[in-house]
Design a protein that fits this description.
Layout (H helix, E strand, L loop, with lengths): L6 H6 L1 H10 L20 H5 L5 H14 L4 H13 L3 H14 L4 H13 L3 H11 L7 H13 L3 H14 L4 H13 L3 H12 L6 H13 L3 H9 L4 H20 L17
Length: about 270
């Protein structure tokens, strides 16, 4: 089945496409919300022993947290597990209390900032993340998350300065480059968006999210056959078919919801956890 869309009409709704594209990030064809490139504030041996199933991790860390809510390690593990399980409001509440009980704990501040961003509190998230690292000792992952918060507030030029700073520390990181590409997409500069996403896609560390975002940007420019080739390249037939269906759905949604609000949830930009 061929996609039939006007490139101009698609471009006019690029922000909406970004909103839909990643809010469905839990699809089987997609990776989780974040391009996981590392962990801020690892909880050490207890984290290593935690269950991999998010629901079970919530149960295990919840017990530890309730036994001592002021335990920073338990609160951090519980907050991370809640976020992974989609319990975003509860994660923010737990981490807020933990930061009050452990003022200055940068690992907790980092996770609290992410949880705020999950819930759409972008300005507060940006402010909290600013306290989680410092100009003399910046964390490139947090710089990238701050960039996503700025993009969500429509402050795209500022966001790109944060991505640029992150890339100086972690050159070529595909997650940061993907965020940069989405930033350009949100401001409707599709050629620059494609350029950044192709750089990300070329990395051996690129996630499936990068593939999807590149295919989406190519499709938005009217090159649908090429977009389909990108999203299904080197994948098993079932996953390739799912990716193509996903791409068609995103482009269909962009065409059918031109008048919808253009608010872009934080999940549209990949936070590096």
């Amino acid at each position: 089945m061929r996609l039939r869309f006007s490139p101009a009409r698609l471009l006019a709704s690029a922000s909406l496409v970004a909103m839909v594209a990643i809010s469905l990030g839990g699809c089987t064809a997609m990776s989780k919300l974040s391009d996981v490139t590392g962990s801020i504030g690892s909880t050490g041996s207890r984290a290593e022993a935690a269950p991999t199933d998010p629901a079970r991790a919530v149960e295990v860390y919840g017990e530890r947290y309730r036994a001592n809510p002021k335990d920073a390690e338990a609160a951090l593990g519980y907050g991370q597990a809640l976020r992974a399980n989609g319990q975003r409001a509860q994660a923010a509440a737990v981490l807020e209390q933990a930061t009050i009980a452990n003022p200055g704990n940068k690992a907790l501040l980092a996770q609290y900032g992410r949880a705020l961003a999950d819930n759409g509190n972008f300005q507060q998230a940006f402010d909290v993340l600013s306290k989680a690292h410092s100009p003399d000792n910046p964390d490139w992952r947090l710089l990238s998350v701050q960039g996503t918060a700025l993009d969500q507030m429509g402050r795209h030029e500022e966001a790109r300065s944060y991505y640029a700073s992150a890339l100086k520390i972690a050159p070529g990181d595909p997650g940061v480059l993907s965020n940069l590409g989405l930033s350009y997409m949100l401001s409707r500069d599709l050629p620059k968006a494609e350029e950044a996403l192709r750089q990300a896609y070329a990395s051996p560390r690129a996630s499936s999210r990068v593939r999807q975002n590149l295919g989406l940007v190519v499709g938005l420019q009217g090159r649908f056959a090429e977009a389909e080739t990108i999203v299904k390249a080197d994948l098993p037939p079932d996953q390739a078919a799912a990716n193509v269906a996903y791409l068609k759905d995103m482009l269909n949604r962009s065409e059918g919801q031109r008048g919808a609000p253009k608010r872009t949830p934080v999940a549209s930009l990949s936070q590096s956890d």
